[in-house]
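name: query_chain
kind: protein
chains: 1
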Amino acid sequence: MSKTIVEDTVTIPKDEYKLLREMYKTVKRQQFLLRITDAEKNLRLGKIKKVPVEEFIESI
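structure:
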C-alpha cells in the first residue's frame, strides 16, 4: 500500500527552475572536483589503500 508523504505541490516558474537546476549541477561539479583534489593530495602524501581487483569489483 502506498503512502502519500506530501499532498501539496509547489509550482516554480520556468526561469527559476532552470536557475535551480544549473546551481545543482554546479554544486555537484564542485563536489566532484573537491574529491579529485583530495584524492590527488592523498596520493602525494602516500595515503593509498591497496585492494585486490576481485574485492574491488565485489564492492561496487
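note: The mean pLDDT is 88.
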